[in-house]
Every structure is written in C-alpha cells, then in structure tokens.
Amino acid sequence: MKHLLNTLYVTGNKRYLSLNGENVVVLEGEQEIGRVPLHNLQSIVTFSYIGASPALMGTCADKGIDLVFMSPHGRFLARVTGEVKGNVVLRKQQYRMSEDENACVGVARNMITGKIYNSRWILERASRDYAMRLDVPLIKEKSGYLYQSMERVRECDSRQSLLGFEGEAASVYFSVFDQLILQQKEDFSFHGRNKRPPLDNVNALLSFSYSLLANLCGGALEAVGLDPYVGFYHTDLPGRMSLALDLMEELRSVIADRFVLKLINKKILNKKAFMQKEDGAVILTDEGRRAFLTAWQERKQETIKHPFLGEKIEWGMVPYVQSLLLARYIRGDLDEYPPFFWK
C-alpha cells in the first residue's frame, strides 16, 4: 500500500477494500493492513482480483474519487467513477496538445532525454562494476556519444529530428549491449536488435519484456485518466497505444533491458527456455515464460528511490508515478514533464 500524489496504490494481490466511516480500509484476510481518509484522495488503484465493497464503490462515485481495478500483472480492468468531472477535461487537454507540434516536441524531448540518460548510465555502471571483464575504453566512448546525443536532443525542435537522434542513440547503445552479457555467452549473444519476429534468444527476451512494459504503461495511463492511444512522439495508429509507447521509452533500459541481463547473467533462464518456430522466430517455451513472469513480478516488487519525488517506491510503480506526473503537466500543475532519471 502506497500513497502518492493523492492516489492510493494497493499492490498486494490478496487485499480487499472496504469503507469505514470516511475511510478506505485495506484488508488482507481478517487483518487490517491500513486505512486512509477519503478526503485526502483523488483516486484509488488496486492490483487485486478480490475487489472492493459496494459501499466503497458508491461513496467513491459520490465523492468523485476514481476507483481503478488492475490485474496483479498491471493490466487495466475497469474504472468505477461517478459524474464525469476531471477526466474529460484532462483528456480534452491531452487531445489539444497532441495536435500542437510544439507541445508534442516539449513532452517527447524530455522523454527521449530520459531514455538516452538511462541508457548511458547502464553503460557507465557496467564499466564501473565489471571493469576487468569489459572493453572499458569502448564503453566510455559510446557513453560519451550518448552524452552528446542528450545535448542535441535538448535543442531539438521537431519530432522528425528527434526521431533521428533517438534512433542513432539506440544504435550506439545496442552496439555494445553484447558486452553486458557476462554469462552463458554461447547461448546468449547479441548482434543487433531484430523483432517481428525475434530471431535469437536475447531478442526474444527483449521483445517479451518490452511487450509487458508497454502493457504496464498503458494500464498506468488509463489509471490516471489519460488516453493511452493518443501520444506525443509516436504516430497515432488504430489499435496502437502511442502514449504508452512514448512513456516506456525512458523506462526501456532501466526496467526491461536490465531485467533481461539479470535473467541471463544470473542464469535464471538458459537455452532450454526457448524454442524456434518454422519461420525462424525464437520464442519462450511455456516453462520459460512461467520462469520469466515469476522473476518479472519479483523484480517489480523491488524498491527504488524515485528521483523526482524523493520517495521509496516499488519498481512496478514507476510507470504509474510517471503517468501521474504527465497528467499533472498536462493539467498545468507542472511547468514541464519530469522524465525518470535513474542512476
């Protein structure tokens, strides 16, 4: 249970929400885990199939408090809301901004700055922690290029130019990604990003983790009242969660890439977790997928100090906090969107 920016997050998957007076009470079995006054809240997000009492749902609807139900894996299920107030105003402003090139560039520029910054620190930390096993001069050279890319991105004034800088930075980052694989090199080698379909074990892991992260970001955006299909950086296409793809850019390396490296380097998965289809696509076996998802859930529960809020949160909550910050920027409560800078 975590209270952030007027939102209560209930992360245990066996917790039930009920009403007691003017308080929301969180129960696990017969035990009370905590309670929070409703007048302090704008929304409640629960990651449990167990649910909430009708009394609480009715009171939240009356008071204009969104009650959002997510699956334990972070997939958006439903939102209980009363008379429509804040969300329609927020979404209308989101739609207006999405049609304004300057507004789009302002948000996208910060997100891509966050992406490049985080990619750079993946390399910096690896060169520090594994100096005897890596080509440190090469890693430092690539890190220096990424630093220069951030400077260019900060001066960028169009999405087209931003796309070019982001693509170049990603190419540089992935050019040394294979060096970060320290174990099981015979079965996990990386020679460039390939997808649709992934053609090797590493790319299969990256693609699956990116898919999970995109769904997590989409659910987080839904939870705060934003439309995950209308973005600022990725082009709007039918059925594509463009804003979720925008949001996940700054989180790819620190959440997905680091997780994939952990699976390989700590030997949580091995070559038996994969199979190759007739068209050459490499996918996880059922057993491999179960092991992956178990480790993914454990990873989401690890904690980090959020660089902007200065509070300790679970890694799985990072997309929700960033979604809240984005919503606050769109509402005009923040001067600019603060990306997630990991170090």
TrEMBL record:
Enzyme class: hydrolase
GO biological process, one term: defense response to virus
Cofactor(s) recorded in Swiss-Prot or TrEMBL: Mg(2+); Mn(2+)
Protein origin, superkingdom: Bacteria
Membrane-spanning segments: none
The protein's Enzyme Commission number: 3.1.-.-
Annotated residues for binding of Mn(2+): 166, 234, 249
Annotated keywords: Antiviral defense, DNA-binding, Endonuclease, Hydrolase, Magnesium, Manganese, Metal-binding, Nuclease
One Pfam match: Cas_Cas1
MF terms (GO), sorted A to Z: DNA binding; DNA endonuclease activity; hydrolase activity; metal ion binding
Record's subunit section: Homodimer, forms a heterotetramer with a Cas2 homodimer.
NCBIfam families, alphabetized: cas1 (TIGR00287), cas1_DVULG (TIGR03640)
Protein role: CRISPR (clustered regularly interspaced short palindromic repeat), is an adaptive immune system that provides protection against mobile genetic elements (viruses, transposable elements and conjugative plasmids). CRISPR clusters contain spacers, sequences complementary to antecedent mobile elements, and target invading nucleic acids. CRISPR clusters are transcribed and processed into CRISPR RNA (crRNA). Acts as a dsDNA endonuclease. Involved in the integration of spacer DNA into the CRISPR cassette.
HAMAP family to which the protein is assigned, alphabetical: Cas1
Family the UniProt entry places it in: Belongs to the CRISPR-associated endonuclease Cas1 family.
The protein's name in its UniProt record: CRISPR-associated endonuclease Cas1
Organism this protein belongs to: Hominifimenecus microfluidus
Lineage: Bacteria, Bacillati, Bacillota, Clostridia, Lachnospirales
